[in-house]
Design a protein that fits this description.
This protein is of the alpha/beta class. Helices cover 31% and strands 26% of the residues. The protein has four domains: 87 residues, Alpha-Beta Plaits, CATH 3.30.70; 174 residues, FAD/NAD(P)-binding domain (3-Layer(bba) Sandwich), CATH 3.50.50.60; 115 residues, 3-Layer(bba) Sandwich (FAD/NAD(P)-binding domain), CATH 3.50.50.60; 117 residues, Enolase-like, domain 1.
Protein backbone atom coordinates (compact mmCIF):
# COMPACT_ATOMS: atom_id res chain seq x y z
CA UNK A 1 0.00 0.00 0.00
CA UNK A 2 1.46 3.37 -1.01
CA UNK A 3 1.96 6.08 1.59
CA UNK A 4 2.06 9.85 1.33
CA UNK A 5 3.62 12.56 3.42
CA UNK A 6 1.28 14.86 5.33
CA UNK A 7 1.79 18.18 7.08
CA UNK A 8 -0.67 19.40 9.74
CA UNK A 9 -0.74 22.90 11.21
CA UNK A 10 -1.96 22.67 14.84
CA UNK A 11 -2.86 25.36 17.36
CA UNK A 12 -2.78 24.81 21.12
CA UNK A 13 0.46 22.86 21.57
CA UNK A 14 2.57 24.53 24.26
CA UNK A 15 5.07 21.98 25.60
CA UNK A 16 6.92 18.72 24.80
CA UNK A 17 4.11 16.73 26.45
CA UNK A 18 1.75 18.20 23.83
CA UNK A 19 4.00 16.75 21.14
CA UNK A 20 3.65 13.30 22.72
CA UNK A 21 -0.16 13.59 22.89
CA UNK A 22 -0.42 14.71 19.26
CA UNK A 23 1.95 11.95 18.16
CA UNK A 24 -0.16 9.30 19.89
CA UNK A 25 -3.38 10.73 18.45
CA UNK A 26 -2.08 10.67 14.89
CA UNK A 27 -0.59 7.21 15.26
CA UNK A 28 -3.95 5.98 16.55
CA UNK A 29 -5.60 7.38 13.41
CA UNK A 30 -3.17 5.67 11.05
CA UNK A 31 -0.21 8.03 10.96
CA UNK A 32 3.39 6.72 11.03
CA UNK A 33 6.77 8.37 11.43
CA UNK A 34 5.01 11.21 13.28
CA UNK A 35 7.13 14.22 14.21
CA UNK A 36 5.29 16.92 16.20
CA UNK A 37 6.84 20.32 17.02
CA UNK A 38 5.06 22.49 19.60
CA UNK A 39 7.32 25.50 18.95
CA UNK A 40 6.31 25.66 15.32
CA UNK A 41 2.77 24.38 15.86
CA UNK A 42 3.02 21.56 13.36
CA UNK A 43 3.15 17.82 12.84
CA UNK A 44 4.61 15.88 9.89
CA UNK A 45 3.78 12.24 9.30
CA UNK A 46 3.12 9.53 6.73
CA UNK A 47 -0.15 7.71 6.11
CA UNK A 48 -1.78 5.53 3.52
CA UNK A 49 -2.55 7.32 0.28
CA UNK A 50 -6.22 6.73 0.89
CA UNK A 51 -6.05 7.90 4.51
CA UNK A 52 -9.22 9.33 6.03
CA UNK A 53 -8.09 12.89 6.74
CA UNK A 54 -11.28 13.61 8.67
CA UNK A 55 -10.25 10.82 11.06
CA UNK A 56 -6.77 12.33 11.46
CA UNK A 57 -8.24 15.76 12.17
CA UNK A 58 -10.78 14.34 14.61
CA UNK A 59 -8.09 12.43 16.51
CA UNK A 60 -6.06 15.60 17.11
CA UNK A 61 -9.19 17.50 18.16
CA UNK A 62 -10.11 14.76 20.63
CA UNK A 63 -6.63 15.05 22.09
CA UNK A 64 -7.47 18.65 22.97
CA UNK A 65 -5.78 20.57 20.14
CA UNK A 66 -6.98 22.62 17.15
CA UNK A 67 -5.97 21.40 13.69
CA UNK A 68 -5.82 24.39 11.34
CA UNK A 69 -4.99 22.62 8.08
CA UNK A 70 -3.60 19.36 6.72
CA UNK A 71 -1.84 19.12 3.39
CA UNK A 72 -0.60 16.05 1.54
CA UNK A 73 2.00 15.64 -1.20
CA UNK A 74 0.58 15.06 -4.67
CA UNK A 75 1.10 11.51 -5.96
CA UNK A 76 3.09 13.04 -8.83
CA UNK A 77 5.39 14.80 -6.41
CA UNK A 78 4.80 18.10 -8.15
CA UNK A 79 2.59 19.85 -5.64
CA UNK A 80 0.41 19.56 -2.54
CA UNK A 81 -3.26 18.92 -2.09
CA UNK A 82 -5.21 21.08 0.32
CA UNK A 83 -7.17 19.05 2.87
CA UNK A 84 -7.93 22.01 5.12
CA UNK A 85 -9.53 21.32 8.47
CA UNK A 86 -11.46 24.57 8.17
CA UNK A 87 -13.40 25.09 4.95
CA UNK A 88 -12.67 28.18 2.92
CA UNK A 89 -9.00 28.54 3.76
CA UNK A 90 -6.78 29.40 0.80
CA UNK A 91 -4.96 26.57 -0.89
CA UNK A 92 -1.15 26.55 -0.44
CA UNK A 93 0.86 26.38 -3.62
CA UNK A 94 3.40 23.77 -4.66
CA UNK A 95 6.20 22.96 -2.27
CA UNK A 96 7.84 20.10 -4.14
CA UNK A 97 8.11 21.70 -7.56
CA UNK A 98 9.78 24.77 -6.00
CA UNK A 99 11.68 25.49 -2.81
CA UNK A 100 8.91 27.46 -1.11
CA UNK A 101 5.24 28.35 -1.35
CA UNK A 102 6.02 32.00 -0.61
CA UNK A 103 9.20 34.05 -0.78
CA UNK A 104 9.08 37.41 0.99
CA UNK A 105 11.59 40.12 0.15
CA UNK A 106 11.95 42.44 3.15
CA UNK A 107 11.47 42.02 6.90
CA UNK A 108 9.34 44.94 8.07
CA UNK A 109 5.70 45.17 9.16
CA UNK A 110 4.22 43.90 5.89
CA UNK A 111 6.76 41.08 5.60
CA UNK A 112 6.30 39.75 9.13
CA UNK A 113 2.51 39.91 8.96
CA UNK A 114 2.65 37.99 5.69
CA UNK A 115 5.05 35.38 7.03
CA UNK A 116 2.97 34.76 10.16
CA UNK A 117 -0.25 34.42 8.17
CA UNK A 118 1.33 32.14 5.58
CA UNK A 119 2.73 29.86 8.28
CA UNK A 120 -0.68 29.80 9.97
CA UNK A 121 -1.98 28.43 6.67
CA UNK A 122 0.66 25.72 6.48
CA UNK A 123 2.85 27.25 3.80
CA UNK A 124 6.62 26.95 3.50
CA UNK A 125 8.04 30.45 3.71
CA UNK A 126 11.38 32.12 3.20
CA UNK A 127 12.11 35.72 4.15
CA UNK A 128 15.02 37.58 2.55
CA UNK A 129 16.56 40.63 4.24
CA UNK A 130 19.51 42.65 2.95
CA UNK A 131 20.12 44.71 6.09
CA UNK A 132 18.74 44.89 9.63
CA UNK A 133 15.79 42.72 10.57
CA UNK A 134 12.56 44.55 11.32
CA UNK A 135 12.27 47.22 8.65
CA UNK A 136 11.68 50.94 9.11
CA UNK A 137 9.19 51.07 11.98
CA UNK A 138 11.16 49.40 14.74
CA UNK A 139 14.65 50.45 13.62
CA UNK A 140 14.51 53.98 12.20
CA UNK A 141 10.87 55.05 12.19
CA UNK A 142 7.93 54.78 14.58
CA UNK A 143 9.62 53.36 17.67
CA UNK A 144 12.78 55.51 17.83
CA UNK A 145 11.02 58.72 16.78
CA UNK A 146 8.12 58.42 19.21
CA UNK A 147 10.29 57.63 22.21
CA UNK A 148 12.44 60.68 21.47
CA UNK A 149 9.34 62.80 20.87
CA UNK A 150 8.07 61.81 24.31
CA UNK A 151 11.45 62.73 25.81
CA UNK A 152 11.34 66.08 24.06
CA UNK A 153 7.82 66.71 25.31
CA UNK A 154 8.83 66.07 28.92
CA UNK A 155 11.90 68.29 28.56
CA UNK A 156 9.77 71.08 27.11
CA UNK A 157 7.08 70.82 29.80
CA UNK A 158 9.73 71.01 32.51
CA UNK A 159 10.59 74.49 31.28
CA UNK A 160 7.15 75.56 29.99
CA UNK A 161 4.07 74.56 31.95
CA UNK A 162 0.93 76.59 32.72
CA UNK A 163 0.39 75.82 36.41
CA UNK A 164 0.95 78.39 39.14
CA UNK A 165 2.77 77.49 42.30
CA UNK A 166 4.94 74.83 40.69
CA UNK A 167 8.56 75.61 39.84
CA UNK A 168 10.30 73.30 37.41
CA UNK A 169 13.19 73.80 35.05
CA UNK A 170 14.84 72.00 32.16
CA UNK A 171 18.45 71.34 33.04
CA UNK A 172 21.36 70.61 30.71
CA UNK A 173 20.53 68.20 27.89
CA UNK A 174 22.47 64.97 27.30
CA UNK A 175 21.30 64.02 23.82
CA UNK A 176 23.72 61.12 23.67
CA UNK A 177 22.12 59.49 26.73
CA UNK A 178 18.64 59.95 25.20
CA UNK A 179 19.75 58.32 21.96
CA UNK A 180 21.43 55.41 23.76
CA UNK A 181 18.22 54.72 25.70
CA UNK A 182 16.32 54.87 22.41
CA UNK A 183 18.76 52.39 20.86
CA UNK A 184 18.31 49.99 23.79
CA UNK A 185 14.54 50.05 23.31
CA UNK A 186 14.90 49.47 19.57
CA UNK A 187 17.25 46.51 20.10
CA UNK A 188 14.91 44.95 22.66
CA UNK A 189 11.83 45.25 20.45
CA UNK A 190 13.70 44.09 17.36
CA UNK A 191 14.68 40.93 19.23
CA UNK A 192 11.35 40.14 20.90
CA UNK A 193 8.92 41.35 18.23
CA UNK A 194 10.87 40.24 15.17
CA UNK A 195 13.90 37.98 15.56
CA UNK A 196 12.30 35.65 18.11
CA UNK A 197 9.24 35.17 15.90
CA UNK A 198 11.23 33.60 13.08
CA UNK A 199 11.84 30.45 15.12
CA UNK A 200 8.48 30.70 16.87
CA UNK A 201 6.60 30.36 13.59
CA UNK A 202 9.24 28.40 11.71
CA UNK A 203 10.10 30.12 8.47
CA UNK A 204 13.53 30.38 6.85
CA UNK A 205 15.46 33.65 7.04
CA UNK A 206 18.11 34.43 4.44
CA UNK A 207 20.33 37.50 4.60
CA UNK A 208 21.46 39.14 1.38
CA UNK A 209 20.37 41.31 -1.53
CA UNK A 210 17.55 39.68 -3.49
CA UNK A 211 17.09 40.17 -7.22
CA UNK A 212 14.71 38.45 -9.60
CA UNK A 213 16.25 35.95 -11.99
CA UNK A 214 12.80 35.16 -13.41
CA UNK A 215 9.22 35.38 -12.17
CA UNK A 216 9.62 32.40 -9.81
CA UNK A 217 13.30 32.72 -8.91
CA UNK A 218 15.22 35.10 -6.64
CA UNK A 219 18.98 35.26 -6.61
CA UNK A 220 20.63 36.02 -3.27
CA UNK A 221 24.37 36.04 -3.71
CA UNK A 222 25.21 32.72 -5.32
CA UNK A 223 21.99 31.08 -4.15
CA UNK A 224 18.90 30.64 -6.31
CA UNK A 225 15.61 30.51 -4.38
CA UNK A 226 12.46 29.36 -6.17
CA UNK A 227 8.94 30.00 -4.95
CA UNK A 228 5.41 29.55 -6.22
CA UNK A 229 4.62 33.13 -5.18
CA UNK A 230 6.70 36.18 -4.24
CA UNK A 231 5.78 39.10 -2.00
CA UNK A 232 7.75 42.32 -2.43
CA UNK A 233 7.81 44.17 0.90
CA UNK A 234 11.02 46.17 0.63
CA UNK A 235 9.62 49.42 2.01
CA UNK A 236 10.79 52.93 1.23
CA UNK A 237 13.46 55.42 2.25
CA UNK A 238 13.61 59.21 2.58
CA UNK A 239 13.35 60.90 -0.81
CA UNK A 240 15.94 63.57 -1.56
CA UNK A 241 14.84 66.48 -3.76
CA UNK A 242 16.96 67.49 -6.73
CA UNK A 243 18.30 70.80 -5.41
CA UNK A 244 21.67 71.89 -6.84
CA UNK A 245 24.44 71.68 -4.26
CA UNK A 246 22.41 69.76 -1.66
CA UNK A 247 24.42 66.55 -1.88
CA UNK A 248 27.70 68.43 -1.83
CA UNK A 249 26.72 70.45 1.24
CA UNK A 250 25.44 67.40 3.11
CA UNK A 251 22.18 66.89 4.97
CA UNK A 252 20.34 64.88 7.59
CA UNK A 253 17.40 62.55 6.97
CA UNK A 254 14.91 61.21 9.49
CA UNK A 255 17.25 58.23 9.91
CA UNK A 256 20.40 60.18 10.73
CA UNK A 257 18.58 62.88 12.71
CA UNK A 258 17.41 60.20 15.15
CA UNK A 259 21.04 59.15 15.70
CA UNK A 260 22.52 62.57 16.54
CA UNK A 261 24.48 62.65 19.77
CA UNK A 262 25.00 66.42 19.67
CA UNK A 263 22.28 69.00 19.16
CA UNK A 264 22.96 71.40 16.26
CA UNK A 265 22.53 75.08 16.94
CA UNK A 266 20.20 75.52 13.98
CA UNK A 267 18.33 73.24 11.58
CA UNK A 268 16.53 74.13 8.35
CA UNK A 269 13.95 71.51 7.38
CA UNK A 270 13.09 70.87 3.73
CA UNK A 271 9.46 69.79 3.84
CA UNK A 272 6.54 70.34 6.20
CA UNK A 273 4.74 67.00 6.28
CA UNK A 274 4.34 64.80 9.32
CA UNK A 275 8.01 63.79 9.57
CA UNK A 276 9.15 67.40 9.18
CA UNK A 277 6.70 68.65 11.79
CA UNK A 278 7.50 65.94 14.33
CA UNK A 279 11.28 66.19 14.06
CA UNK A 280 11.26 69.95 13.63
CA UNK A 281 9.31 70.43 16.84
CA UNK A 282 11.51 67.88 18.65
CA UNK A 283 14.74 69.64 17.68
CA UNK A 284 13.26 73.02 18.55
CA UNK A 285 12.13 71.85 21.98
CA UNK A 286 15.56 70.43 22.69
CA UNK A 287 17.08 73.83 21.94
CA UNK A 288 17.86 74.14 18.22
CA UNK A 289 16.68 77.11 16.14
CA UNK A 290 14.38 75.52 13.53
CA UNK A 291 13.06 76.75 10.19
CA UNK A 292 10.46 74.72 8.27
CA UNK A 293 10.25 75.25 4.51
CA UNK A 294 7.71 73.98 2.01
CA UNK A 295 6.77 74.61 -1.60
CA UNK A 296 3.02 74.71 -0.94
CA UNK A 297 1.62 78.12 0.00
CA UNK A 298 -0.46 76.59 2.81
CA UNK A 299 0.69 74.47 5.75
CA UNK A 300 -0.96 71.04 5.91
CA UNK A 301 -3.09 71.76 2.84
CA UNK A 302 -4.51 68.21 2.83
CA UNK A 303 -5.89 68.57 6.36
CA UNK A 304 -8.11 71.60 5.81
CA UNK A 305 -7.45 75.29 6.42
CA UNK A 306 -8.49 75.29 10.09
CA UNK A 307 -5.98 72.60 11.09
CA UNK A 308 -3.20 74.21 9.05
CA UNK A 309 -3.76 77.67 10.49
CA UNK A 310 -3.99 76.41 14.07
CA UNK A 311 -0.82 74.32 13.72
CA UNK A 312 1.04 77.24 12.17
CA UNK A 313 0.14 79.29 15.24
CA UNK A 314 1.38 76.54 17.57
CA UNK A 315 4.72 76.37 15.76
CA UNK A 316 5.12 80.15 15.72
CA UNK A 317 4.37 80.40 19.45
CA UNK A 318 7.15 77.86 20.09
CA UNK A 319 9.63 79.91 18.07
CA UNK A 320 9.68 77.78 14.92
CA UNK A 321 9.85 79.76 11.68
CA UNK A 322 7.56 78.45 8.94
CA UNK A 323 8.19 79.49 5.34
CA UNK A 324 5.57 78.54 2.75
CA UNK A 325 5.52 78.96 -1.01
CA UNK A 326 9.28 78.66 -1.32
CA UNK A 327 11.20 77.83 -4.48
CA UNK A 328 14.59 76.20 -3.87
CA UNK A 329 17.40 77.57 -6.02
CA UNK A 330 20.60 76.01 -4.68
CA UNK A 331 22.55 75.09 -1.54
CA UNK A 332 26.15 75.99 -0.77
CA UNK A 333 28.55 75.02 1.97
CA UNK A 334 29.92 78.00 3.85
CA UNK A 335 32.51 78.22 6.64
CA UNK A 336 30.86 76.39 9.53
CA UNK A 337 27.39 76.59 8.03
CA UNK A 338 25.23 75.88 5.01
CA UNK A 339 23.32 78.44 2.99
CA UNK A 340 20.02 77.64 1.29
CA UNK A 341 19.17 80.06 -1.50
CA UNK A 342 15.43 80.43 -2.08
CA UNK A 343 12.84 82.51 -3.77
CA UNK A 344 10.24 83.62 -1.23
CA UNK A 345 7.26 85.60 -2.48
CA UNK A 346 9.20 86.17 -5.69
CA UNK A 347 12.20 87.66 -3.87
CA UNK A 348 15.65 86.18 -3.22
CA UNK A 349 15.99 84.80 0.31
CA UNK A 350 18.90 83.08 2.05
CA UNK A 351 18.78 80.84 5.11
CA UNK A 352 22.01 80.17 6.95
CA UNK A 353 21.94 77.05 9.07
CA UNK A 354 24.23 74.56 10.77
CA UNK A 355 22.30 71.51 9.53
CA UNK A 356 19.77 70.73 6.83
CA UNK A 357 17.12 68.09 7.48
CA UNK A 358 15.48 66.61 4.38
CA UNK A 359 11.93 65.45 5.14
CA UNK A 360 10.30 65.63 1.73
CA UNK A 361 8.52 62.30 1.33
CA UNK A 362 9.56 58.72 0.66
CA UNK A 363 11.06 56.78 -2.23
CA UNK A 364 10.34 53.05 -2.76
CA UNK A 365 13.18 50.54 -2.49
CA UNK A 366 12.98 48.77 -5.84
CA UNK A 367 16.21 49.52 -7.72
CA UNK A 368 18.09 46.37 -6.70
CA UNK A 369 15.21 43.97 -7.36
CA UNK A 370 15.49 43.92 -11.17
CA UNK A 371 11.74 43.36 -11.40
CA UNK A 372 11.93 43.67 -15.19
CA UNK A 373 13.37 40.14 -15.27
CA UNK A 374 10.09 38.94 -13.79
CA UNK A 375 7.99 41.14 -16.06
CA UNK A 376 6.74 43.35 -13.21
CA UNK A 377 5.84 46.93 -14.07
CA UNK A 378 6.96 49.92 -11.97
CA UNK A 379 5.14 53.21 -11.51
CA UNK A 380 6.48 56.65 -12.34
CA UNK A 381 8.24 56.98 -8.97
CA UNK A 382 9.65 53.46 -8.97
CA UNK A 383 6.82 52.03 -6.89
CA UNK A 384 5.35 48.57 -7.35
CA UNK A 385 1.89 48.91 -8.87
CA UNK A 386 -0.75 46.59 -7.43
CA UNK A 387 -4.47 45.93 -7.78
CA UNK A 388 -7.04 45.58 -5.00
CA UNK A 389 -5.72 42.07 -4.25
CA UNK A 390 -2.18 43.49 -3.99
CA UNK A 391 -1.13 41.61 -7.12
CA UNK A 392 1.24 43.11 -9.64
CA UNK A 393 0.69 42.67 -13.37
CA UNK A 394 2.29 39.24 -12.79
CA UNK A 395 -0.44 37.63 -10.64
CA UNK A 396 1.76 35.39 -8.48
CA UNK A 397 4.01 38.34 -7.58
CA UNK A 398 2.44 40.63 -4.99
CA UNK A 399 3.55 43.74 -3.09
CA UNK A 400 2.55 45.28 0.22
CA UNK A 401 3.50 48.22 2.41
CA UNK A 402 5.46 51.36 1.65
CA UNK A 403 6.99 49.98 -1.57
CA UNK A 404 3.60 50.53 -3.22
CA UNK A 405 3.53 54.20 -2.10
CA UNK A 406 0.13 53.69 -0.52
CA UNK A 407 -0.61 55.17 2.91
CA UNK A 408 2.76 55.20 4.67
CA UNK A 409 1.72 53.66 7.99
CA UNK A 410 3.00 50.45 9.53
CA UNK A 411 -0.52 49.35 10.47
CA UNK A 412 -1.53 49.63 6.81
CA UNK A 413 1.57 47.66 5.79
CA UNK A 414 0.82 44.90 8.31
CA UNK A 415 -2.80 44.64 7.19
CA UNK A 416 -1.71 44.45 3.57
CA UNK A 417 0.90 41.82 4.40
CA UNK A 418 -1.67 39.47 5.89
CA UNK A 419 -4.04 39.88 2.95
CA UNK A 420 -1.22 39.48 0.44
CA UNK A 421 -0.13 36.22 2.06
CA UNK A 422 -3.61 34.74 1.78
CA UNK A 423 -3.91 35.85 -1.83
CA UNK A 424 -0.48 34.43 -2.65
CA UNK A 425 -1.76 31.08 -1.40
CA UNK A 426 -4.92 31.09 -3.47
CA UNK A 427 -7.42 33.49 -1.88
CA UNK A 428 -8.94 36.53 -3.57
CA UNK A 429 -9.35 39.08 -0.78
CA UNK A 430 -9.36 42.78 -1.53
CA UNK A 431 -7.77 45.51 0.54
CA UNK A 432 -10.07 48.38 1.47
CA UNK A 433 -8.15 51.53 2.39
CA UNK A 434 -11.08 53.89 2.10
CA UNK A 435 -11.01 54.60 5.86
CA UNK A 436 -7.45 54.97 7.16
CA UNK A 437 -6.72 57.06 10.26
CA UNK A 438 -3.55 59.17 10.26
CA UNK A 439 -1.73 60.70 13.23
CA UNK A 440 1.05 63.26 13.38
CA UNK A 441 2.75 63.08 16.79
CA UNK A 442 3.33 66.77 17.34
CA UNK A 443 2.18 68.52 20.52
CA UNK A 444 -0.72 69.02 20.23
CA UNK A 445 -1.17 66.01 17.96
CA UNK A 446 -2.93 66.01 14.61
CA UNK A 447 -5.30 63.16 13.79
CA UNK A 448 -7.57 62.74 10.80
CA UNK A 449 -9.81 60.17 9.18
CA UNK A 450 -12.17 60.24 6.24
CA UNK A 451 -12.83 63.14 3.88
CA UNK A 452 -11.88 66.74 4.36
CA UNK A 453 -14.45 69.37 3.51
CA UNK A 454 -12.76 70.03 0.16
CA UNK A 455 -12.55 66.34 -0.72
CA UNK A 456 -16.16 65.73 0.27
CA UNK A 457 -17.41 68.55 -1.96
CA UNK A 458 -15.23 67.28 -4.81
CA UNK A 459 -16.81 63.84 -4.36
CA UNK A 460 -20.23 65.37 -4.90
CA UNK A 461 -21.54 65.55 -1.35
CA UNK A 462 -23.74 68.34 -0.08
CA UNK A 463 -21.60 69.13 2.94
CA UNK A 464 -22.10 70.71 6.32
CA UNK A 465 -19.34 71.11 8.90
CA UNK A 466 -18.77 72.02 12.51
CA UNK A 467 -15.60 73.45 13.99
CA UNK A 468 -15.22 73.25 17.77
CA UNK A 469 -12.37 75.25 19.35
CA UNK A 470 -10.56 73.39 22.09
CA UNK A 471 -11.52 76.16 24.48
CA UNK A 472 -15.00 74.55 24.48
CA UNK A 473 -13.66 71.16 25.63
CA UNK A 474 -13.49 70.82 29.44
CA UNK A 475 -10.44 68.54 29.30
CA UNK A 476 -8.46 71.27 27.56
CA UNK A 477 -9.61 73.85 30.11
CA UNK A 478 -8.39 71.83 33.09
CA UNK A 479 -5.13 71.20 31.23
CA UNK A 480 -4.72 74.97 30.74
CA UNK A 481 -3.93 74.24 27.10
CA UNK A 482 -6.65 75.16 24.63
CA UNK A 483 -4.54 75.09 21.47
CA UNK A 484 -6.43 73.16 18.80
CA UNK A 485 -9.85 72.19 17.51
CA UNK A 486 -12.24 69.44 16.38
CA UNK A 487 -13.74 69.55 12.89
CA UNK A 488 -16.51 67.26 11.66
CA UNK A 489 -17.55 66.91 8.02
CA UNK A 490 -21.01 65.46 7.37
CA UNK A 491 -23.40 64.76 4.52
CA UNK A 492 -26.09 67.44 4.79
CA UNK A 493 -28.73 65.11 3.35
CA UNK A 494 -28.12 61.92 5.35
CA UNK A 495 -26.37 63.30 8.46
CA UNK A 496 -23.62 60.69 7.88
CA UNK A 497 -20.18 61.50 9.30
CA UNK A 498 -17.76 61.74 6.36
CA UNK A 499 -14.60 62.95 8.10
CA UNK A 500 -13.13 63.93 11.46
CA UNK A 501 -10.07 66.13 11.89
CA UNK A 502 -8.53 66.91 15.27
CA UNK A 503 -5.71 69.06 16.61
CA UNK A 504 -5.48 68.31 20.33
CA UNK A 505 -3.63 66.49 23.06
CA UNK A 506 -4.29 62.74 22.70
CA UNK A 507 -5.83 63.24 19.25
CA UNK A 508 -4.27 59.95 18.19
CA UNK A 509 -6.20 58.10 20.89
CA UNK A 510 -9.48 59.83 20.06
CA UNK A 511 -9.30 59.20 16.32
CA UNK A 512 -10.06 55.48 16.64
CA UNK A 513 -13.62 56.26 17.75
CA UNK A 514 -13.91 58.64 14.81
CA UNK A 515 -12.62 55.91 12.50
CA UNK A 516 -15.40 53.60 13.62
CA UNK A 517 -17.93 56.40 13.05
CA UNK A 518 -16.75 56.94 9.47
CA UNK A 519 -16.29 53.25 8.63
CA UNK A 520 -19.70 52.17 9.89
CA UNK A 521 -21.60 55.19 8.55
CA UNK A 522 -22.65 56.68 11.88
CA UNK A 523 -24.48 59.98 11.84
CA UNK A 524 -23.88 63.26 13.58
CA UNK A 525 -26.90 62.44 15.74
CA UNK A 526 -25.28 59.12 16.72
CA UNK A 527 -22.22 60.99 18.00
CA UNK A 528 -24.23 63.75 19.66
CA UNK A 529 -26.51 61.38 21.56
CA UNK A 530 -23.93 58.78 22.66
CA UNK A 531 -22.51 59.22 26.15
CA UNK A 532 -18.89 60.39 26.33
CA UNK A 533 -16.82 60.28 29.51
CA UNK A 534 -16.46 63.70 31.06
CA UNK A 535 -13.07 65.32 31.26
CA UNK A 536 -11.60 63.30 28.45
CA UNK A 537 -10.51 64.65 25.11
CA UNK A 538 -12.84 62.12 23.49
CA UNK A 539 -15.73 64.23 24.72
CA UNK A 540 -14.72 66.67 22.01
CA UNK A 541 -16.26 64.33 19.42
CA UNK A 542 -19.66 64.57 21.06
CA UNK A 543 -19.40 68.32 21.57
CA UNK A 544 -18.35 68.84 17.95
CA UNK A 545 -21.42 66.86 16.87
CA UNK A 546 -23.67 68.93 19.12
CA UNK A 547 -22.18 72.08 17.62
CA UNK A 548 -24.05 71.44 14.37
CA UNK A 549 -27.32 72.44 16.08
CA UNK A 550 -26.45 74.60 19.07
CA UNK A 551 -23.84 76.75 20.78
CA UNK A 552 -22.22 74.33 23.22
CA UNK A 553 -20.49 77.20 25.02
CA UNK A 554 -23.93 77.99 26.45
CA UNK A 555 -24.34 74.57 28.08
CA UNK A 556 -23.34 73.63 31.60
CA UNK A 557 -20.24 71.45 31.86
CA UNK A 558 -21.94 68.08 31.51
CA UNK A 559 -25.20 69.07 29.82
CA UNK A 560 -26.19 67.59 26.53
Amino acid sequence: MSTREFYMRIEGMSCPDCEVRVKKALEGAGGVDVKADFRHGEARFKAAGSADTAKLISAVRQAGYRPVSVVAADPTGTGISDLAANAGRPRPRAVHARDYDLAIVGSGGAAFAAAIRARDLGARVVMIERGILGGTCVNIGCIPSKTLLRAGEIYHVAGHHPFRGITTEAGPLDLGAMVRQKDELVADLRQHKYADLVNEYGWDLVYGEAAFADDHTLQVGERMITAAAVLIATGARPAVPDIPGLHEAGFLTSTTALALDRLPGSVAVIGAGYVALELGQLLSRLGARVTLMQRSPVLLKNYGPEIGAAMAEVLSDEGIEVLTGVHYRYVEQGPGSRRIHLELNGQPYVIETEEILVAAGRQPNTEALHVERAGVHLGARGEIGVDAELRTNVPHILAAGDVTLGPQFVYVAAHEGGVAAENALGAHKQVDLSVVPAVTFTTPAIATVGLTETAARAAGYDVRTSVLPLSAVPRALVNHDTRGLFKLVADANTDQVLGVHILAENAGDVIHAATLAVKFHLTVTDLATTLAPYLTMAEGLRLAAQTFDRDVTKLSCCAG
